[in-house]
Amino acid sequence: MRICPNCGNNVDDGVAFCKNCGCNIMNMGAAPQQPMYQPYQDPYDHTNEFSAQDVSDNKIFAMLPYLLGTIGIIISLLAINKSEYIAFHIRQSLKMTIVSILLSILTVVSAITIIGPLVCLICTAILSVIRIICFFRVCAGKSMEPPIVCKLGFLR
After folding, report:
1. CA 21 to each of CA 25, 39, 86: distance values in angstroms, whole numbers, following the listed order
2. pTM of the model
3. In a 10 Å sphere around its CB, with 0-12 CB exposed, 13-18 middle and 19+ buried, how is residue 64 labelled?
4. Banded pLDDT at 31 (limits 50, 70, 90)
5. For the chain, which terminal residue's Cβ has fewer other Cβ atoms within 10 angstroms, N or C?
């Protein structure tokens, strides 16, 4: 029994072509025993980009923007000391702060209706939950972009 190098399907020894993808197996020579698959890497997970020393030294200042909002951003900016880890978390918290400000403006503008402020209130509650998630991720030493907010293209 051989394995197709193209799709990883099991192929009988005397067969020239893979039944699954049609790849010519006879000209391939000996196929590898295991198919070569790349493990999934989350594009929003940046944990491996920072050194363990940077994470352990600056974890407290990375928590502050999520915990205190704008005041935490200012404190972390003062304590940044060339730390990419803190800068990453400041950018993520700044995204959430900007979205929060935009939701506040939208609430005021749509105050005439009942549905507009209600939708903004729900979005603000979701944003608060995302801040809590981010806070606990920093506590665990992870550097992941916040869910939902990571889809926004600004402040990359």
Report:
1. 11, 22, 48
2. 0.69
3. buried
4. very low
5. N
DSSP string, the chain: -EE-TTT--EE-TT-SB-TTT--B-GGG-SPPSS---PPP--TTB-GGGS-HHHHHHHHHHHHHHHHHTHHHHHHHHHT-TT-HHHHHHHHHHHHHHHHHHHHHHHHHHTTTSSHHHHHHHHHHHHHHHHHHHHHHHHHTT--BPPTTGGGS-S--
- What is the biggest distance separating any 2 CA atoms in the chain, rounded to whole angstroms? 75
CA distance 118 to 98: 19
Q: What tokens were used for 83?
A: 């730390």
Bridge partners, 17 (sequence order)? 24
Q: Are 105 and 126 in contact (CB under 8 A)?
A: no
